[in-house]
Amino acid sequence: MPTDATAVVDGRFEIGEGPLWHVADERLYWTDIPAGHLHRYDPETGDVERFYEGESVGGFTIQSDGSLALFLTEGHVAVLRNGDMETVIDGIAGEEGMRFNDVIADPQGRVFAGTMDMDDFSVGRLYRIDPDGTITEVVESLELPNGMGFTPDRSGLYLTESNANVIHRYDYDEETGEISDPETFAELPDGEGMYDGLTVDSEGRVWSALWEGNAVVRHDEDGGIAERFEIPAEFVTAPTFGGESLADMYVTSAAIDADPEDEHAGALFRLDPGVDGTPEFTSEIEP
Question: Which amino acids does the record list as binding substrate (predicted)?
C-alpha cells in the first residue's frame, strides 16, 4: 500500500495514543494505554525510553514546569515530576469503571478531559479541571469523547465524538473556560473508519486520525476532507506536530486487534504534513 509516513518506532504498542511534543526536552511523548506505559522518543538520536509503568494513562498534558499531568482511571489525576507521582484528584464520583481518554490543556492552564466506559462506547463525559483541582462537568453525555483542539483565535474548541463519528465545534470563553453552542464541524462518511485523535495546524486547519481508516486527514475550513495521508497501519489513533519549528507530524497507532500481518501496527510514525503546527498549551494542575 502506498504510504506517506515512516515508522520511526516499530514497537507494536497496544494502543499508542496522546502524542505530544515536549519543547524543553525536544522529544516526542506518548502513552500506551492498556499497558500502563509512557514512552518518549528522541528524533536526534533515535533513542526510545519507557519512563513510566503503572496505572493506565488515558491522556496527559505537559505542565509549564516540564512535569506531566496524568489522567488515569476512575477520575484519578496525578502529577509526575522527576519520577515521583503526586495525586491531585483521588477520583470523580460516577466514574467508577471509566477511564480518561483524551485531554488537552487550555491557554489558562486548565485541562479539558474526556472519560469513557471501557465496555460501552455510548457512555462518556467531558470535564474541565482547573489549576486548583476544581472539577466541572461541562458535557454530560458523549459517545466516546476523543481528540480536541482550539481555533487559532481561541474562540472555539473542537471536540471529537468518536462513536458518533462527528467533530463538534464549541464556542469557547478563554477567560472563564466555559464552552457552549456546539455545532457539527465534520462528519465522516460510512466506510471511512472512525474519527480518533485531533490536532490543529498553524493555518487553523483540523487534522484527524482515522481508526480503521489507515490515514490521517486534513479538513478544510468548512469541515470537508482536503487532504489524506496514508499510514501503513489500520488503527491510526492520533496526530501531533513536533520537531524543529513543529514542521514534522507524528502519528500514533494501535496493535490491539490488528492482523498479525500488519507489520507496523502499533508503531509511531512521522510524516511531512507540508504545514507547521503551533505549540500546545501547557497545564498548571498542582497537588
Answer: 99, 101, 119
